[in-house]
Design goal:
Blueprint lengths: L19 E3 L2 E3 L3 H8 L4 E4 L12 H7 L4 E7 L14 H4 L7 E6 H9 L7 E7 L6 H8 L3 H10 L5 E9 L4 E5 L3 E9 L2 E6 L4 H4 L32 E6 L4 E4 L4 E6 L6 E9 L12 H19 L2 H12 L5
Parallel strand pairs: 1-11, 2-3
Antiparallel strand pairs: 3-12, 4-5, 4-6, 6-7, 7-14, 8-13, 9-12, 9-14, 10-11, 10-13
The chain binds 3-((9,9-dimethyl-9H-fluoren-2-yl)methyl)-2-oxoglutarate and zinc ion (ZN).
């Protein structure tokens, strides 16, 4: 339903049994914005005009100006789009791991047609296309008009690494990207429609039970927010989230290593977002006590080192248990 509405309602949010605080929403010229970013804390930034030149990026405009290029579209049998790394599907894993989604290439006009003719029960679609010079001259013109001065000033001030990619995301209303963390700093710009982002600080690692580092779902939480298995994941009950509902023209800073669950609001029409992923800066001086994201990086390295040493992922669990149970408990 093409919805030109100018706001959202509670009934458009999915129900999870998770206590939520609100992420602060501040104007781009408020000094607290840079303060929060420097502390690796999420913040919704208004009035930045970061992607103002993309305000007109609805499907008919994109169809018209991206006609020639084919886009990557993720298809899912349900509303969940859980990311997985194809390269991590080893022969041993082959028969155990069932990919929850499939990736197809299609023209944006085909994507648009399927979206408009979609019927309940059919596969859902999620277009995610890296913005590069194959998207056509008009789109490139809009892209160069992003407020690169503003975001580059922040990148420099925070000593972040280079911009690695911009992803154009067009999702169906109700689509969900389940809880995961990324290893890059992220400026998440909302262009059309509303998205709800539920964030958890890296310290919640113990409550969100990420898949093992070599699993195709590495970095994704094992917990199904819609029906959490509290026998397998008892500490999920302790989790406390921060909620950001972002609309057109707003930018959400998603700090590196912060967990985030993202949903396109129910009955809100399709959503358009553009993310800006930057390599995180180097951890210059190690200050104790270590912060959550530093411990996360250490745990990842320990897991990787053990897998390299033992070769067999099954052995890793029993070795960790031998080290910890009755000794570090
Ligand atoms: C789920 C999907 C489509 C996907 C499938 C297969 C490979 C990669 C990805 C991928 C990567 C990023 C996003 C955007 C966003 C979540 C959101 O907006 O839904 C997010 O998490 C972020 O900006 O960090 C979404 C996806
Ligand atoms: Zn992400």
């Amino acid at each position: 339903m093409c919805d030109g509405s100018s706001s959202w309602k509670e009934s458009q949010l999915r129900n999870y049994d998770i206590p939520l605080k609100s992420v602060p929403k501040l104007s781009f010229d408020d000094p607290r914005v840079e303060q929060l970013i420097s502390e690796n804390k999420p913040v919704i930034i208004t009035g930045s005009d970061l992607v103002y030149s993309a305000s007109k990026w609805n499907l008919e405009y994109l169809e018209k100006h991206m006609e020639s290029s084919t886009c990557t579209v993720i298809m899912s049998p349900n509303h969940i789009f859980k990311y997985f790394d194809e390269k991590a599907i080893t022969p041993a894993m082959k028969n155990k791991f069932v990919p929850p989604t499939r990736k197809v290439s299609m023209k944006i006009s085909d994507f648009s047609k399927r979206l408009n003719n979609w019927k309940s029960g059919e596969e859902r679609l999620y277009l995610q296309q890296t913005l590069n010079n194959t998207v056509g001259p008009a789109i490139v013109q809009d892209f160069i008009k992003f407020r690169w001065d503003w975001i580059t000033a922040i990148q420099k001030k925070m000593a972040w690494g280079p911009l690695t990619s911009n992803l154009l995301l067009i999702g169906m209303e109700g689509n969900v990207t389940p809880c995961h963390y990324d290893e890059q700093q992220n400026f998440f710009a909302q262009v059309k429609g509303w998205k709800r982002v539920i964030l958890f600080s890296p310290e919640h690692y113990g409550c969100l039970y990420p898949h093992t580092v070599f699993h195709p779902h590495d970095r994704q939480s094992q917990v199904d927010f819609e029906k959490p298995d509290l026998n397998k994941f008892p500490r999920f009950e302790e989790v406390q989230g921060e909620e950001a509902i972002v609309g057109p023209g707003e930018v959400l800073y998603i700090p590196v290593y912060w967990w985030h669950h993202v949903e396109s609001l129910l009955n809100g029409g399709y959503t358009v977002s553009i993310n800006f992923w930057y390599k995180a800066g180097p951890t210059v001086d190690i200050i104790y006590p270590l912060q959550g994201h530093q411990k996360l990086a250490i745990m990842r390295n320990v897991e990787k080192m053990l897998i390299e040493a033992l070769k067999d992922p099954e052995e890793v669990g029993s070795l960790f248990r031998a080290i910890v149970l009755g000794r570090y408990t």
